[in-house]
Amino acid sequence: MRLSSSQRQFLLQATQEYATNLHLAEEYLATRGLSVEEGRQFHLGVVATPLPSHESYAGRLSIPYITPTGVVDIRFRSILHQEPKYMGIPGAKTTMFNAQAVLVSGDFICVTEGEIDCITTVVKTGYPAVGIPGANNWKSFYTKILDDFETVIVLADGDNPGLEFGKKVSRELGNVSIIQMPEGHDVNSIVIKEGKEWLSDRIRRCVHK
């Protein structure tokens, strides 16, 4: 479903308003090894005063999906142990997180499972990345978007669904390298445990092999 101009304007307004409250998520971001300043690079925010229809997202981290045409979606992540962990806007079309990275990357790009892993990859290694919101949300048209890269590096979670995600992308693209995280880890948790060089080194090896 194509967004109307008023819908796009509302998403932009929400993104800008919630971003002013990101300092309220400082403690949560710290548990993920991220600073408020790093979160601001991706226009993250906190729903302190919900806009109309956003009341159910109160107290959550807002994660805008920004494309070259503007804000196309916002996902809301629990930071106070609310359930469910993630909430989305009803009827929103699933897309890539940090999609604009495709336009400014060089010969390679990383693909992560989830937004926090994407943010971690970009701010800790400096390498370009896009995020897929869950291993089951890969869309076939992403193949066309990523096919022109010499190398697509899938940073797969350290579990069976993560490995299957990597294999699925590999079957659809002929230019894939898979880096699977150690068992029980994702990109964010392994960077917290082992440091950013652990990830940077492995990405470098894929690029320069």
Concise overview:
This protein has 209 residues and is of the alpha/beta class. The chain is 38% helix and 20% strand.
Polypeptide structure, described:
- This protein has 209 residues and is an alpha/beta fold.
- The protein has two domains: 5-88, DNA primase DNAg catalytic core, N-terminal domain; 101-207, Dna Topoisomerase Vi A Subunit, Chain: A, domain 2 (3-Layer(aba) Sandwich), CATH 3.40.1360.
- 38% of the residues lie in helices and 20% in strands.
- It has nine helices and eight strands.
- It has helices spanning 5-19, 26-31, 36-40, 101-104, 115-125, 142-146, 160-172, 187-194, 196-207; strands at 45-46, 61-67, 70-77, 86-88, 108-113, 129-132, 151-156, 176-180.
- The strands form two sheets. It has a four-stranded antiparallel β-sheet with strand order 1-2-3-4, with helices on one face.
- β7 (151-156), α7 (160-172) and β8 form a beta-alpha-beta unit.
- α8 packs across α9.
- The longest helix is centred in the first third of the chain and has 15 residues, at 5-19.
- It starts with a helix and ends with a helix.
Q: How many extended strands?
A: 8
Helix content: 25-40%
Oligomer: single chain
Strand content: 15-25%
Supply the number of helical segments.
Answer: 9
Mean pLDDT, to the nearest integer, reads 95
CATH architectural grouping of the largest domain: 3-Layer(aba) Sandwich
| Structural class by SSE content | alpha/beta
Total domain units? 2
Q: Rounded to an integer, what's the Rg over CA atoms?
A: 17 Å
**Distance linking N and C termini:** 41 Å
